[in-house]
Structures are given as structure tokens and as C-alpha cells.
Amino acid sequence: MSDFSEQFIGQNLVSMHATNPEPFTQIELEKTIDQPFSEIIKNTNLGFAPDQGTEVLRHTLVENLYNGITTNDIITHAGAQEAIYCAFNAVLKAGDRVLVVSPIFEPLVQIPENMGCDVHYVELNPTDNWSLDLTMIENQFKHGCKMFIINFPHNPTGATINLNELNQIVSLCEKYGVWLLSDEVFRGLEHEIIDRLPAVADLYDKGISIGVISKAFAVPGLRVGWLVCKNEDFRKEVINIKGYLSICNSQVDEKLVSALLQSADKLLLRNLNIINKNKKLLDDFNSIMDCNIDVFLPKAGCCVFARILDDLGSIELVKNMASKHQYLMYPNTLFKTNINAIRIGFGGSRFQKFIEKIR
Ligand SMILES: Cc1ncc(COP(=O)(O)O)c(C=O)c1O
Questions:
Q1: Residues with beta carbon inside 6 Å of ligand 1?
Q2: Taking the CB of the first residue and of the last residue of the chain, which one, N or C, has fewer CB atoms within 10 A?
């Protein structure tokens, strides 16, 4: 991402590509959970946290976000990013064939590529609500596959799959012995509760679920993520690798995140209220852009991947928006797809200002 953003340094642009809802402030969080931070962190042990993560946070995760897993199945990390990095390095080696949904959040494919893996893509269908073709997945698995990488609810489209599709993916992974890495950082931000999927770690022994406090819960300033998997050998390897990275999270951050997730529903409700309000503004979107675009109304999260229907390339459109209006969006080239589109985040208060400004 940085190479792309570098060309805009010094232009003082407002970022319009964020995937998380408006970040909470400390004051708002304290009101939401009805507890001051000072009380939560008083008497915190400031030694190293256990390498697997503190018992208090892992227990909160078991109680509030998952079914059928134990505290042993969880390892906490410095953000989802570290969890993803460790998971890939624990399972994959150069030459392994991996299958990735596309478009995709770049690190989910760039890390395996950098490791020398043989990366293949299964593209979501832009003309059918970004749907996933399950027969294409099985065809790919027949050639051998070490890991399938999915991300539903999906960045950048805001699409998701249904339970039946998820169960079929798990069955295919079981049949072909494929690891299933499921980036679930937007789980909880489904606009309709019926679209909420179970975590793959709850469904499959070789399923790895990735979670984080930054996205669905909108607290990106606390760098706490986690992975969940029932496979013990995998977890041992992850802890080995983590020992060369963060080693452990801050005990202060883990205590705070644990307290916040005890009120997970309240945090999600605040975020969904913002999202549902701003989502209505997406209707105006087509009319205010300089070109014809197609906005698939997302089913989850707060970003859209607007397809450009004219001849204009996405990078040109991004540059136009930056120079004319001082807003920065992300082009499709950052999501490993040739589908001509830009990602726009609509979860912040600045989205309303953006619509007003360019209307
Ligand atoms: C799909 C997805 N996974 C993981 C991450 C990483 O989250 P964090 O930066 O909080 O570690 C992001 C961040 O944008 C994301 O969009």
C-alpha cells in the first residue's frame, strides 16, 4: 500500500479508504462500557504477558465471540497483521500451492507470494453481487492446495457468503486436506444479523480464524488481534514465530481489550448505527462522481468497491479526486484484481462531509 500512497505525500489529503467505522475515543468508550480505563488497568502487572496472551483476554474471547473453542485454542497478537503473518509462516513453505479469493486485502496474498508460494486466485463475480463460485474452488483443489484464504465479510466489496456456502467450503477443505485461513476481522458488522457466520475455527480443525479489535469494534489504537485454531502443532509453531516478532502484547492493552469485549454487543451496535446511517448516502454516490460507477450495496462492514463503468482508469480517477477535492481513495491495483474499481470507506463522519463537499 505504501508505494501507492507515497505519490500523495505532502498533499494533505483526507483518507476516504478506511475499512473501520469511526474510531472510538477513550471518553466515548468509557461511556459505552460504563467503566473508566483507570479502574480497568489499576494494579496491572507490567511484566511480559504470557506468549499465548493473557488468560483474561483469551477467556473473554471464548465467552463473547466463539462457540466450542477453549482458551488454549487462542493466541493473541499485535494486531491481525501479526496473526496473519504468523499463520502463513507456520503452515506454508516455498512452492506450496495456495488459493486466494480476489479481490483481496493485499497482505493476505503478498505474504504467501513473498514466501515463494504458488498463488492462484478465485475471483468474486462483480456482476452477481460479488458471489463466489464453489465449483471453481473444487477445480483448483483437484490440482493440490495447501491453504485456501478467505475473508468474509469481505474487504474491499462488503460482500459476504451464506452459511450454506461456508459449510460447503469447509467440506471441500476437509475432503482435500486444505488449511482454511479465514480473515474474520469484520465479523459482527453484518448489516442484518442473519448474515453473521460462525467462525471457521469453530467448524474445522484446520480452520484458522483471525480477529482484531481495530475493525468490527473500531478501536484501531489498541493494537490487539488474535488467531484461533484447534490444531496444537500449528499453535506451537505460531508461538515460535511470534517470539521473533512482538513476543507478547502489552498487558495494559490486553486488559483494556478484554474489558471492551465484555461489552462487544454495545460496541457493535454503535458501529452499526453509524454504518446504517451513512449507507443511505451511498444512493447519492453515482450522481456526484465525475464518471459512471456501479455501487454494490454492501451486506457488511463499511467499505464499497465501486466499479467504474466508463473508460476512465481507477488510478486516474483516484488522482482526479485527490487533486480536485483533496480526498484519497484506493484503486483496484491494491487488491490484486484487474476489475476497474475504487474502494471507498463510508464508516466515518468524514463520509458525510465528503458527500456534501463534492455534491
Ligand atoms: C481484511 C483485513 N485483515 C486484516 C487487517 C489488519 O488489521 P490490523 O491492521 O488492525 O492488524 C485489515 C486492515 O485493514 C483488513 O482489512
A1: 19, 79-81, 105, 151, 155, 183, 185, 212, 214, 220, 225
A2: C
